Amino acid sequence: MKNYVVCLKWGDKYSAEYVNVLANMVSRNTTVPYEFVCFTDNSNGIQPGVRVLPVPKLPVTGWWYKPYFFSPQLPIKGNILYFDLDVIIFRNIDNLFTYNPDKFCIIRDFNRHIRQDWKKMNSSVWRMKSGTQDHVWTNFEKDNFVVTKRLHGDQDWIYSQVRDNFCFWPDEWIQSYKWEMRNKPPMSRINGVRNFNVPGEPIIKPETSVAVFHGEPHPHNSVDQWCKDNWK
After folding, report:
1. Where are the alpha helices (DSSP H) in the chain?
2. Homologous superfamily of 3-170 in CATH?
């Protein structure tokens, strides 16, 4: 079965540089053969070597395009490893391709740092075999207007739909940069962006290979030197 690493770039929240940096980080940190694919509405600036595929025109915006990756009509078939653009991959990720290979794998939401029994999902990184969770898309397609008004984001929809044949990644593998690796330091607005008040060093577990940047700061404007050294 062919391996794919997939990302979504819709609108102008993230530049093409985010796609290119993600492709470079994956390339540096895996030995597994794969093809890197970006689904986007604008391919300008995306580097050669990244396969670009269009997203369909849907009556949704932003992260609400992510249920499309569960569509039976998705033009790629195989083992799909998805990353949001706002991550830093800094160690080998071969285990993300091979862990529980027959199950849908996803992050246990980062509120886990407050509640150890927290069971909701964070959709920044997930993996599945195409064709195994089609209902996530088909049910969304039937009633996407109501779903997008009722729920905050795509991960809430995925959580409501995927009730079996799934597992969480081990928490240590993929960590929240702000909440877990930096332990929620004081923040304020710097040049209009919420950022850490002072630069600092993350606490990195031996098993961690991916840092997730939910909310601000984004990797490119973090004041931390660690981010500058690893987001490239």
Report:
1. 16-28, 94-98, 135-142, 144-150, 154-161, 225-230
2. Spore Coat Polysaccharide Biosynthesis Protein SpsA; Chain A (3.90.550.10)
